[in-house]
């Protein structure tokens, strides 16, 4: 086939065109394709520009990285041409001035073919307040904004967009720098930074999408804006290595999250770190750095399951800093694991803020064994009525009582720290065998333990009381003359190592009920 060599007027390099009758996506070339950039017609012969890696360079369309030339129309045309012929986009490194919003065409290919926009660590310079890049779709042949339209009408698959910085000559840009919508499997935003933008990203109805290495801040300690705003459906998203510094809200979520994962996320210099205003299902924050916050996590709707695991949480010895705030609702289920390293916490009252107590907190707490503060700090009425402390937790000093809005919850009842029989009794009565007093606990058997017993047995003919304690498996009863070894109760060790308390004989009458308490001293 014949080839011709031409000099590119923008990059000043010689380029090769090859004779062909097909476009890059294997469709017959027509005269309308001939833009003198990708296709040329000389006489009756069509030529196609030879591409090294199926990418077009925005400079070919007139985008000059000189920090002066308005590159908006050139970049938009590069996007349109690349989309038409199923090509990707790149750029020569430099500073490109943009003066109006550029639309990213949808990529609805259900074969999940990838389309990459890699800007080669270039800088986009903004001199007025507007959104720089925004999701778009074709309406009657014209590329228009997808923001504000119906969800999932302009789906995108396989778009990878990033590798650039956003700077501005303004003191603050209030418009979201990026606005993306309906991105699905294989889509990714990565390696993007902004400075002096109140909001780096407005994300609408995106799922199966990766948000990776997005960094945004404001000058000094100015707390302005909501750096990341997510709305619509958010399913199976991955948020990795995100930085939202010096903001009123670092990450704001106005739509439901399902199976989303946050890894190595930074929360620094914020009034509120992460704010969730819709339902959460099975999400986690792991390996993240959380420091210099007023409130780290705020939940304003249902929390089916949310886990904090292996995070660095620095309270900087400031008692005003709070970790978690949320509304008491039936589905609440938060797991605060012992792998979280809480530094500079002055008291356990900083763990969360009480807002409503009908359903309690739904909190599963495992305390870090290296935390220096006493567990006595749990003596606070901020704790709700429904939370568990993981029995595997290693406490720094000793167990203590916990005050909550439903009354005093003794910390050393058998059920409170073992996920056993919660409530004021610490046991569950087993009436399987008639007339036999059989009380099941979740206390682990040891020969050195002290187990306090104070129970009342109601029968058809009256009541009997038994008061005393076990030392190991030997029972000592309180009597009018003092404490004496007694055989009226016995400790039975179960196969799982827990103990049951039983009467050594049967009652002569029917047992109506058993009240009282059994607890580990």
What is the CA-atom radius of gyration, in angstroms? 33 Å
Number of strands: 47
Mass-distribution shape: elongated
The low-confidence runs, each spanning 5 or more residues with pLDDT under 50, are: 369-386, 390-420
- The span between the termini is 92 Å
Q: Tell me the strand percentage band.
A: over 45%
Which structural class matches the secondary elements?
A: mainly beta
Mean pLDDT: 86
Most strands sheet: 28 strands, mixed
Helix content: under 10%
Helix count, per DSSP?
Answer: 1
Key descriptive features of the protein:
28-stranded mixed sheet; five-stranded antiparallel sheet; 521 residues; mainly beta; 47 strands; single chain; 1 helix; 2% helix
Present the secondary structure layout.
Elements lengths: L2 E5 L6 E6 L19 E4 L2 E5 L5 E3 L8 E5 L1 H13 L3 E3 L4 E4 L3 E4 L9 E12 L6 E7 L2 E4 L13 E10 L9 E4 L5 E9 L5 E4 L4 E9 L8 E6 L2 E2 L2 E3 L2 E11 L3 E2 L2 E3 L2 E11 L3 E2 L1 E4 L2 E11 L6 E4 L2 E3 L7 E5 L7 E3 L4 E3 L8 E3 L8 E3 L13 E5 L3 E3 L12 E3 L2 E3 L18 E2 L8 E7 L5 E10 L2 E10 L2 E6 L2 E4 L3 E5 L4 E6 L7 E10 L1
Parallel strand pairs: 5-7, 6-8, 7-10, 8-10, 9-11, 10-13, 11-14, 13-15, 14-16, 15-17, 16-18, 17-20, 17-21, 18-21, 19-22, 20-23, 21-24, 22-25, 23-26, 24-27, 26-28, 27-29, 27-30, 28-31, 29-32, 30-33, 31-34, 34-36, 35-37
Antiparallel strand pairs: 1-2, 2-4, 3-4, 11-12, 37-38, 39-40, 40-46, 41-42, 41-47, 42-43, 43-44, 45-46
């Amino acid at each position: 086939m014949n080839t011709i060599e031409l000099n590119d007027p923008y990059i000043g390099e010689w380029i090769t065109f090859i004779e062909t009758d097909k476009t890059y996506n294997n469709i017959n070339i027509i005269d309308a394709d001939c833009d003198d950039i990708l296709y040329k017609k000389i006489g009756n012969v069509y030529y196609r520009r030879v591409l090294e890696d199926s990418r077009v360079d925005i400079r070919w369309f007139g985008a000059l990285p000189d920090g002066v030339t308005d590159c908006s129309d050139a970049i938009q045309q590069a996007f349109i041409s690349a989309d038409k012929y199923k090509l990707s986009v790149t750029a020569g490194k430099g500073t490109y001035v943009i003066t109006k919003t550029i639309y990213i065409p949808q990529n609805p290919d259900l074969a999940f073919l990838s389309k990459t926009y890699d800007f080669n660590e270039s800088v986009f310079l903004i001199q007025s307040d507007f959104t720089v890049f925004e999701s778009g779709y074709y309406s009657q042949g014209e590329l228009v904004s997808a923001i504000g339209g119906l969800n999932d009408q302009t789906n995108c698959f396989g778009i990878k967009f990033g590798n650039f910085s956003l700077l501005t000559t303004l003191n603050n840009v209030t418009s979201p720098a990026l606005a993306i919508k309906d991105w699905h499997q294989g889509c990714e935003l990565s390696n993007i930074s902004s400075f002096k933008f109140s909001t780096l990203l407005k994300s609408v109805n995106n799922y199966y999408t990766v948000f990776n290495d997005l960094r945004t801040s404001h000058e000094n300690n100015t707390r302005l804006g909501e750096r990341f705003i997510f709305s619509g459906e958010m399913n199976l998203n991955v948020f990795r290595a995100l930085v939202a510094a010096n903001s009123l809200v670092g990450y704001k979520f106005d739509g439901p999250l399902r199976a989303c994962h946050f890894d190595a996320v930074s929360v620094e210099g914020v009034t509120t770190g992460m704010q969730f205003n819709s339902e959460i299902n099975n999400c986690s924050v792991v390996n993240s750095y959380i420091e210099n916050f007023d409130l780290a996590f705020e939940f304003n709707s249902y929390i089916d399951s949310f886990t904090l695991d292996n995070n660095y949480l620095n309270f900087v010895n400031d008692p005003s800093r709070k970790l978690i705030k949320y509304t008491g609702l039936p589905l609440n289920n938060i797991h605060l694991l012992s792998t979280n390293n809480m530094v500079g916490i002055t008291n356990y009252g900083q763990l969360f803020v009480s807002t409503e107590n009908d359903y309690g907190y739904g909190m599963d707490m495992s305390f870090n064994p290296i935390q220096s503060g006493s567990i006595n700090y749990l003596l606070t009425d901020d704790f709700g009525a429904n939370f568990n402390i993981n029995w595997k937790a290693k406490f720094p000093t000793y167990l203590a009582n916990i005050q909550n809005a439903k009354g005093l919850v003794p910390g050393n009842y058998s059920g409170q720290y073992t996920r056993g029989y919660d409530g004021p009794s610490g046991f569950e009565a087993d009436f399987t065998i008639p007339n036999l007093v059989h009380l099941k606990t979740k206390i682990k058997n040891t020969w050195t333990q002290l187990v306090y017993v104070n129970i009342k047995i109601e029968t058809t003919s009256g009541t009997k009381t038994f008061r005393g304690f076990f030392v190991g498996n030997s029972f000592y009863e309180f009597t009018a003359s003092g404490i004496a070894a007694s055989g009226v109760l016995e400790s039975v060790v179960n196969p799982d190592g827990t103990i049951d308390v039983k009467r050594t004989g049967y009652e002569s009458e029917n047992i109506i009920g058993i009240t009282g308490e059994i607890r580990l001293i």
